[in-house]
Specification:
- InterPro entries: DnaJ_C, DnaJ_domain, DnaJ_domain_CS, DNJA1/2-like, HSP40/DnaJ_pept-bd, HSP_DnaJ_Cys-rich_dom, HSP_DnaJ_Cys-rich_dom_sf, J_dom_sf.
- The protein is of the alpha+beta class and 448 residues long.
- It is built from 14 helices and 17 strands.
- The chain folds into three domains: 141 residues, DnaJ domain (Helix Hairpins, Orthogonal Bundle); 101 residues, Sandwich (HSP40/DNAj peptide-binding domain), CATH 2.60.260.20; 80 residues, Urease metallochaperone UreE, N-terminal domain (HSP40/DNAj peptide-binding domain).
- The strands form seven sheets. The protein has a four-stranded mixed sheet with strand order 12-13-17-16. It has a three-stranded mixed sheet with strand order 1-11-8. Strands 2-7 form a two-stranded antiparallel sheet.
- A hairpin with an 8-residue loop joins strand 14 and strand 15.
Length: 448
């Protein structure tokens, strides 16, 4: 005896009908009441949906057994019936409740051994979000947790990226920084549900999707969309059961403090990764937390520049006076990343030309976390005096003319005039260069 013969009446068959009788009756009734053959009347649409619903349940032996006993396959209604009668929910055919619901919701595995598993006219009552009949929302909802059935795998959430600005001194000496980032955290009270108890969604009956039929030209098309009541979850939280810890949203935003360690010698663009420390909830859905990735962003220094893959330092346009460039001496470099005043000796006899580059060992950037250091390269710019008095000129001339190196250079210059193509020589005197803009400004001032 069946509790409610409604589905059998929809197919016009007795409760004792075989699977072959059910299939034949469905074809007859579906052809009879198909909306295409009934001028798209609302009555035929309703009748056709009832027929399709009846066939989708009665063709499945497990669902049919459940319907015969309870008059429904809605798990919430079945539980309510059992609670009213104080009868534990067990299957009369020897199947446990967990196994029964597992088979009920695992449509892909159950239907794989059946032929003609979907009804004609493209009415996919068992369609799911991914279109393969698996991962039914109800199994992931109340009964997925209650009966410990397999839930759908969580997706990996997005990474949280943050740029950490560092000076060249920070990257030379290393430092520790406290970084505070906001992230979403799963509510520990309701485990992200938003309530202490889930209830099956009555709109989609736990599927998470709703199937509708529409006419497209001469054809009737069915399509599935996400349930707007449960947002595809298959379950809802009633207001009386709302979690007080998160006010029903299932998560909260927390400020997480990360201890970021900058090692000596780190380079611009280096990534420091905190695995699985990202958001636990994305778009109101639970995810596997992504990573928090700290990107080192080196601030450009006004004196020093990193070269040779960041292991050496380059100091450009260091001004040196004429005397030191010719005679040697001591120079001091300020602002080095090691926070020390650097003293460099230029040995006598080492002529420093303007634009020349010299290197100092072990004053570059740290390598191997500070166990080794690169090279400091210095580009020199010789600063000449604007004028010299005649006594100094004569004294310098007298001294230089005695130097063999200077004599050799002068001899090379004299040989230029002996070239065969040199027919005539014109003599000129140098004058100071005044840019055109400066000359224009001088003329304006003169007129005023």
């Amino acid at each position: 005896m069946v509790k409610d013969p409604r589905l059998y009446n929809a197919l016009n068959i007795p409760p004792t009908a075989s699977q072959s009788d059910i299939k034949k009756a469905y074809r007859v009734q579906a052809l009879r009441y198909h909306p295409d053959k009934n001028n798209e009347s609302e009555e035929s649409k309703k009748k056709f949906q009832d027929i399709s619903e009846a066939y989708s349940i009665l063709r499945d032996e497990n669902q049919r057994k459940m319907y015969d006993k309870y008059g429904t396959v809605n798990p919430t209604e079945i539980q309510q019936q059992n609670q009213r009668t104080n009868v534990p929910f067990t299957d009369p055919f020897g199947m446990s409740a967990a196994d029964l619901f597992s088979q009920f919701f695992d449509t892909q595995n159950h239907n794989s051994g059946q032929s003609n598993s979907s009804p004609p006219f493209g009415f996919p009552f068992n369609s799911s979000r991914n279109g393969n009949g698996n991962n039914n929302r109800a199994a992931d909802g109340v009964f997925g947790d209650f009966f410990n059935t397999k839930s759908r795998p969580l997706q990996k959430g997005p990474d949280i990226n943050h740029n950490l600005k560092c000076t060249i001194k920070d990257l030379y000496r290393g430092k520790r920084s406290k970084l505070r980032l906001e992230r979403s955290k799963l509510c520990s009270i309701c485990k992200g549900d938003g309530g202490v108890k889930r209830s099956m969604c009555n709109q989609c009956h736990g599927d998470g999707n709703i199937t509708e039929t529409t006419r497209l030209g001469p054809m009737l098309q069915t399509f599935t969309h996400t349930c707007n009541i449960c947002n595809g979850n298959g379950w809802v939280i009633i207001s009386q059961e709302t979690c007080q810890g998160c006010n029903g949203v299932g998560f909260y935003n927390e400020m997480k403090i990360f201890d970021v360690e900058i090692y000596p010698g780190m380079k611009d663009g280096t990534q420091i990764v905190f695995n699985n420390e990202g958001d636990e909830i994305v778009n109101k859905r639970r995810v596997i937390p992504g990573n928090v990735i700290i990107h080192i962003n080196e601030i450009e220094d006004n004196k020093f520049k990193r070269v040779n893959d960041g292991q050496d330092l380059y100091y450009w346009n260091y001004e040196i006076d004429l005397f030191t460039s010719l005679c040697g001496g001591v120079i001091y470099i300020k602002g080095h990343p090691n926070n020390k005043l650097i003293k460099v000796d230029i040995l006598p006899g080492e002529i420093i030309e303007s634009g020349s580059v010299k290197g100092v060992e072990s004053l570059g950037m740290p390598k191997n976390k500070g166990n080794e250091y690169g090279i400091l390269y210095i580009q020199f710019q010789v600063k000449y005096p604007e004028k010299l008095n005649m006594e100094s000129i004569k004294a310098i001339e007298k001294i230089l003319l005695k130097d063999e190196n200077v004599k050799q250079m002068q001899k090379n210059d004299e040989n230029i005039g002996l070239d065969d193509d040199c027919i005539e020589v014109e003599e000129y005197v140098l004058s100071s260069f005044v840019p055109p803009v400066a000359r224009t400004n001088e003329k304006k001032r003169a007129r005023n």
